[in-house]
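Hello,

Our lab assistant flagged a job as stuck in the queue for most of the afternoon. It eventually completed. Since we weren't sure the result was trustworthy after the delay, we are filing this so someone can double-check. Below is the sequence as submitted and the structure that was eventually returned. Let us know if re-running is recommended.
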Amino acid sequence: MGRRPDGALERDVLKVLWRSDGPQTPGEVREQLDVDLAYTTVMTILARLHDKGLTNRSARGRAFAYTATVSESELIAKRMSAELSVTKDRAGALVGFVGGLNKRDIAALRSVLEDDIG
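-- returned structure --
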């Protein structure tokens, strides 16, 4: 089995939290993942997400139950902004990003720019 991309496990755990109706324990998250992970691995991932401010946690019995603090779209927007903040060629990065979009995404971007900024 090959190595998973960086952040893939965190993304998978967050997807479980985004789909859930309420706080989830590591065991509950583990049951909903498509990959077989040790309980301690899931617990570690959730703790790291908490340390990054991406989850809240509350005591539930002898475990913590976690909820996501940001939506998927908010997280993606933060990551895109973070990447833009480290480049010296912001315009080039934006051109490269927009150049890779399909027509539907371009139309959505155009609509956002016209409605929210225009």
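-- support follow-up --
The delay was a queue issue, not a problem with the job. The result is valid. The mean pLDDT is 92. Strands lie at 55-60, 63-68.
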